[in-house]
């Protein structure tokens, strides 16, 4: 299946949140989101650390903008539709090879937004879009096995638990960790 390029003004929304591509004017609010989330998010994601400065935010946003037309990496911000504030990041990374065709769905949420169902809605919206509109046969999520909050998002979004891959991921300290795997396929949407 060929990569599908989505327009730069593409978006998904449900009346509460909007998913859209990164823009250059997201650098400052994105950095602020990381800044308030280091302690919580940094426990699970190595890049979210004390060294994450404005230059790192600029590089990330520029890479997301550059990668968008490839049809392989759809990195989005999660935006509050009421005031336009950034709530987190989510993305589909598509792998299309002679042996596989699927997408990994990755996400993180600003730490002061946890517990409101934001990420569950965002994960389900983007996964459904991938399955229905992009024609993906499978979307999967993996999380460190002890990251209960991330695993709960996958479960609440309707993903099916498939098992634990031993020593699949790295922790922020570089040590190997087990990873819990979840998937959603088109038949699960019915």
Automatic annotation (TrEMBL):
Classification via PROSITE patterns: GNAT
Matches recorded under Pfam families: Acetyltransf_3
PANTHER family: ACETYLTRANSFERASE (PTHR43441:SF10), RIBOSOMAL-PROTEIN-SERINE ACETYLTRANSFERASE (PTHR43441)
Record-given protein name: GNAT family N-acetyltransferase
N-acetyltransferase domain segment(s): 17-187
InterPro entries per UniProt: Acyl_CoA_acyltransferase (IPR016181), GNAT_dom (IPR000182), Ribosomal_N-acetyltransferase (IPR051908)
